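WARN no homologs supplied; continuing
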Amino acid sequence: MNLGIFIIGALTFLVSFVFFKINAFRKTKNDENAWGKLLLVFLVDYLVLMAGVLATGIIFVSLFNAFHG
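OK structure emitted
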């Protein structure tokens, strides 16, 4: 069951990450110097979402184990 919680977290991460990237491409579509900005946005989004998924997964698994023994 613990693995399932992390798989759901990974899927949530992927969906969120894709939406962030689509939004970033839309905002910089007409900008010629966009690749530097997109790389920076990619790294920041990746780190924030990865930390959120790991923290949420750890909290959910800890609560699940605490309440289900």
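The chain has a mean pLDDT of 82.
OK
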